[in-house]
Structures are given as structure tokens and as C-alpha cells.
Amino acid sequence: MAENVELKNRMDETKREVTFELNGEKVDLIVPPTYRLVDILRKDLNLTGTKISCEIGRCGACSVLINGQVVNSCLVMAYQLQNVKVETIESISKNSLHPIQQAFLEEGGLQCGYCTPGMIVALSDLLENNPDPTDEEVLEHLSGNLCRCTGYTGILRAIKNYKVKMVKKSTI
Amino acid sequence: MELNRDNYQEKWRVRPDGYDKVTGSLKYLTDYTFPNMLYGKVLRSSYPHAKIKSIVTEEAEKLEGVKAVITYKDVPGMNRFGLIFPDQPVFCEDVVRYVGDAVAAVAAISEEISEKALSLIHLEYEPLEVMDSPEKSLSSSCISLHPSGNILHRASYKNSEQVLVELKNCPYVVEDTYETPRQMHAYMETEGGVVVPEEDGKVTVYAATQHGFKDRMQLARILSIPESKIRVVSSPIGGSFGGKDELNIQPYAALLALKTKLPVKLHNKRSESVRAGIKRHPMKMKMITGANKDGKLVGHYVRITADTGAYATLGPAVLDFAVEHAAGPYIIPYIDVEGVSVFTNNGVAGEYRGFGGNQVTFALETQIERLAELLKIDSIQFREKNLRKADDPGPLGQRIVKNDGAKSVLTMIKTSSVLMDQPKKHPNKLTGKGVAITMHGGGLGFGRPDPSGARLSLTKDGQIEIAFGFEEFGQGLIASIEIMLMEALNCSKEDIKIVIGDTDLVPSSGSSTASRSTNMIWNGIQKLKEPFIDKVLDLVADYTNTTRKLLYLGENGIWRKGKRNQFVLSYRELANFADLSHITFQTHFHFPTTPDPVIGGHYLYSFAAVAAAVEVDLLTGQVKVIKLDHAVAAGPVVNPLGYLGQIEGGAVMGLGFTLFEDSVMENGRYHTENFDSYLIPTIKDIPNETTVMVDESLMEGDVFGPRGVGEIGTVAIAPAITAAIHQACGIWVKKLPVSSEEILNALQEILPCKAGGASSG
Fold it and tell me: What residues in A contact B684, CB-CB < 8 Å?
């Protein structure tokens, strides 16, 4: 595989072993300590649901969860991964769609879809801890995730839809 | 009618590509990898304008892991690209004209090695004078950037020689110059993809574009191989907005792949995308607009200067569009519009959602507001007095399809809560509301080849396959195709297979641009549905010995009408017995054009009105749009969720154009190379409330169906916001994006009482 050749030939750096949990499974890698998490995911593990866009932590397209909290995977380096728990978009709908994913579909929370995995990951973090966030909390939480297509209006509609459904569910 | 779920019910549908997008399982073309794939990188110019003295690549070639280093010497065919005027070098030979110009490219076994190799390519430049503004490019001492000089294109429309004379006699005249920014498309997926040399000698290009066949044509010229040997796979796309219409990384990945005989991936970093990619034309627009004492517009004199950057791409057509739309939906007896598009050493400007309309609409609508203020009449009333009527000719005097959309959108916007409600008072903020209106041509315009095509067939698996040469870059094209085909054939979505975005599989439909795709899809389906249904029913009637007129297409297959409708035969069964070549229908047709030979003049127009409510912060000068309502007249709504998304998303893009966005350049170099300095709206910057109202009606005799709405939602945003800013604090914004500093300075000068009162209260 091209990826393996690339790993062997990667620039002359001292490589380190790093062990972490990815989507519930243990991962062992030998990589340069400054190799970025987004490259580990996309290039080495072919988990391309995590997108790449600004690479300076400004757009949120590469959002993943580390120990349950949303981070930009373009800013996380391999040495920071030791013993942490990483969850990517691929883990969020492992069994069935997360209700927020369903709400995105129903309300036009996405268009080109390139920011969508990052949005979903960020929202899954918010909603996990706070199933009924205020508008302010939603805006604050998503302020690091850029979307160029929807103007965010469909995303807010999706969150509203989600909240209505969750309230219904909890009152039944 | 308000565009929402309640009013559209079952037409409000989940998009077919949605599941794969929300789960992250959709593979974009930049997500592809292939065995033995190499990583390509392009070396861009170090100078905005310079002579190339030498290019030395040996050291880069020797670096371990490097498989190819190429320059202009390695281009087997035409070393130029450009959709209409191929004037941009694939690789510069002797001169670089902007910082995005390519001089060399590398393919290596890793991205890191490619990057390193770029630093080992040695170029010697002799810097030349940088022409960083149209004024400088037009000065007498300037260097010619192209053999024909520094003027890319001139365009004009004049219906009288007496315009300035008439304006002199007007009691009410507003004269000013307006400026708009170099807005970036800022699609979240930067340009990229993989080019794969195939075993049969063909080459497959997996890279985003808005028109696969045009990429194929351009690549054939560059690579010097027949178009039939190139396959362009170009969807799905992570956003485009016009920005991926022109070639970008395709020629480099293709040349490297052919040279190395290995797949080559090239995916621009954001800074490379900013540097090389096209932008919206910055325009300076001088306008003198006059009205008589009865509030009737008399004269409109416009001079537009567009900074088109170093190369042509679609610059001429953008200028033509700006000239055409400079008088908007108004009837003005004396019009004189001239535009010039000028080459500079700035970033290349080209196609971008709105296509020159956004710039002139900002200037024109501000003029209209200011005239209304002079006349001391309500600006909506002023517009109503001067609005085009349904059967008035188009803005270039050409015949257009009868349309009363202008009046309709103005009537609808009057009911907006933005205008009806009193804004909430806030001690440190001033509030205001504003309105703007626009009309926008669809299709490429008279005199420009604008063909489309479609194919409808039954596959051997019994699926109804519809194929178009269009692209899905997020707008919801696939969803619109699904909805229109289900409606036309009365079948279910499970019966349908949609094929787009692959030149080996689809007919040419023209570009997914100019708000034309929805209209062309509707047209294609209208033309194909009858022959398809007829043929299917003939075959099934024969095969099952059933009276043909009792048969109809439905879910899963063919049904027979009766007291209780009966299922006769599935599409799969039909595919098993029928000769499928008899159930394949193709159509080719042209976008509707005006019968009058006015180059670039449009025939189909859509209309929009916008109402904006803003808060201006007295302490910071910052503007927040708190409400933004829209009224759109663009014919029937085929895909409500898609339509709404286009208007809402286009609006926020327009909000960015108005308040934040500018690719700042100095001496031909970008200051804004990523989202830390180029600010697009975040979720915190958008209005709290937005309502979209639509008029779906077409006038009698209008057989042209639904119009596209990809652009219209973005065109009239800026002047609505700036009119609201004026109402809030009395300032007319003449230059976008709005500067908080300027507002603050002006507030201190003109509103000492208000500002002082606010800070003490």
C-alpha cells in the first residue's frame, strides 16, 4: 500500500510509538511525534469522514472528540495521543443515525456536506452533556465550525427539530 | 407564500445524498487514494510580476522519493488554459503575472517530500513593476501584461447620447462612486483530486469542476491527447459557488500522472487555494442617477471598472452581466452604461455566484435609496413608481419572457415583519431597517453557446436511469432531479437511478452555472417523459395483452387502472424481456434565448427583494444583522428544501460580502491567506430570524418552467443591509465590506448627542 511506503519513507524524524483508543478499538502506531491526528486518520487509517480545510484550527471541518471533548484534529499531534480516547464521525452512527444526524437530513442542515461531519461531531459533544441547550449555548458551541453553504439557518432548524423531538421523547 | 415545511408537506424531502454526508461516509474526490499513489505539489510564483531568468530543477529531481519534476517544457500540448480565452499558462515560460502563477510541479511518494522538493527548485526572477490596481494598469507608462494590452474587455449599453444632458436638467440627482471587495468563494473543500493513468491508455481525472466536458476539452488541448481518452469524474464536490468552474489543479495532476504513469493526488492547502484561486471581481462603479419632481427616474449614467487580475477566465462575461444589470428592474428613459475589465497583477477574478450582479446591485440600490431620501418619499413607493411592468423589454432593450416578478417581490416584501414590526430598543445600539430589490438573468445569454442534454433509459436491472452532465456541489441538484422525475413518471425514488458528474456516463448538459441547471433538468425531463412513457406502455401492452390506455407508470412498475388499480409488471420484469436499446431516449436542446441579437442579453429573469434589520453598536461601530427576509419570484418551487437552502445560504454569503469579507492585497500579494484573517460569517454572525416568501406563478404563455435560484438569494443583500445602516445612523456606505471604524468615526461626527446619550445611558 502507498500509505505503508509513505510511512517508511517519511522524513527523517525520530519516530515514536503511540497507543490510543480510536472508536472503541486500540490503535498502535509508530509515527513522528509531530505527525498530526488528521493525517493519521485520513492518510494512515483511511478514515476520511474527518475532513481537512483550513489546517489552522479555524474551521472545524476536522473536528473529532478526544476524551469526549471536541477538538480540531489538525492541531493535535501524535505525541498528545498517548492513552487518550479518540472518536470520529465514523463512530457516531455506528449502529444507527444519531438523532441530530436525522434532524440535519430533515431540515436541510447540510448542502455540500464537507463541514457536516465536523458539525455533527461538535454537536454530539454538546448534546451528550446538555440535551436541551439554550440558543446561546448552541451558537457558542458551533462558533468554531464554519459552513459556507447553508448560512447555518438549516443547521439551527435541525437543532430546533432535534430539541422538539427530544422533549417529546422525554415526556412520553 | 412562505417557504417552509408546513406549506410544502411531502415535497419537503430528505436529499438522496444526505445520509452519506451526515455520516461522513461519502467519498469526496479529495478523499480518494489509489495503490502506489504519488502526491503532487505545484510551485507558485514568488513574485506578482517578474521575468523568469532561469528554472533549475536538478536538485529537486535528485531528492529521494521524488518521481517527477515538471515545468513548461513538459507540457506536450497547448501550455495555456482558460474557459473561453485560453491566456493563462499551465506553467509560466518567461513571465509570471500573479502570485498564483505556476512555474513547476513535483510528484513524490509523500506530501512532505513533494513539499521539500519544491524548496529545492531554484528560480531566478527579475522583478517587474507591479500593477496592483486598474488605474495603474491603465496609466501610460505601464507594462502590457498581455499582447493585446491591459484591457481584457469593454462592454456598454446606451439608449441615448443625451444622458448627461438630461441628468443636468434633473432636480434630483445622486452622484457617487461605490466599491466592492475581492470576495473569496471559501468553499470548505479546497481544489483537489486524483488523476489515474489507466491500463488501456486512457486517463481518469477525479477532480471537482462545474462542467466535466469543458475540463475534458481543456485537458485534451494541454495533454495533446484526444478527448475520448480522458474521463472526468467531477462530483461530489465540497462547495464551488463558481470557484471551481475554471481549471485549477487538474492539468498539474494529469501531467504528473502521465509522466510517472502512476496515480497522482493533488489537494490544495488553503493558502494555495487562496493564492491561485479565482475571486469575485472588485469593482469601482461611478453612478449618476437622476429623477424628476414627480419621482420618476430620468437618467442613469454608470461607469464600471473591474479588476480582473492577471488572466481572462470568464471576466468578459462577468462585465457584460454587470453592464446588463446596472439599471436593475427599473424603467429609465436615458441610460448610459460603460464598463471596462482591466488586467492587473492581482489575484485572478472570475466566475462567482451572482456574476457581476451583486456589485452593481449594491451601487444601484443605494442610488435608489438616496434619491428617495432626496425626494422625501418612501423608497418602496419610489421603486413602485419606476418598476418595470410585466411586458416591458429587458434591461438591454431586448425582448424577454413576460414577467411581473419585480412587482410581485416588492409586494411580498412589504409584508415582512422586518418592515412591519418596531425594532427593540437597546441603550448602546441604533437600529434600522432597509430594503433592496433585484432582477437576475439565467443562462449564459444571447450569442453564447448554451446547449443542454439529458438521457432517460431503463437499465438491465430495471431501474429508470436519468443522466445529466451536471454536477452536485451541494446545491441539491440530485434531490431536484429525483423530485422532478418522480413527479413526471409517477414512480418512486427506489425506481430511479441518477447519473451525473462522469463524462464517460452522461450526455453533455452544459455547465452547472448561471442558475441554469434546475431549468435545464426540468426541460430535459419534459422532453423525455412522453416518448419514454409511450414506449414503455406500448411494450407492456403488447407483452401482457392489455389495453394500452388502461396502463400507467407507477411505483415499482406498470399498473392497470380499474376499480382497484392492479400491479401489472415490475420495471425489472420489463427490463428482462424488452430490448433496452428501444427504451433509451436522448434529447439535446438550447437554453432559451431572446430573439433579439443583443450579445449576452438574457431571456429568463428571476426577481428578489430583501428586507434587513440591523443593530449598529455605538461603542464598537459593529453592525449585526438581526433579521433578514426574502421574497423571490423564480417560477415553481420544485425542491422546497433545496430552494430554501439556496436563498438562506446565498444570503449569508451576501452578508459576508457586506460586512466582513475581502481578500486584502498589497503590491499584488495577499494579506489574507486563511480563515484567521479572511473572515466568513460564523453561526454567531447570522440573523436571528429569516423568512423566505415565494411567488411560484408564471404568466400566461410562459412555458419555460422553474428558474434556478442558485444566485438570486445573494444579489440584493448588501444594499438592504446598508440601507438599514443608513436608517440606523445616517451613514451611506459606499465601500464594502462595511468598516466599523468608518462607522464609528462618522457616528462621532454626526451623532454627538445620540452617541453621548447612549454612552451615558
Answer: 139-140, 143
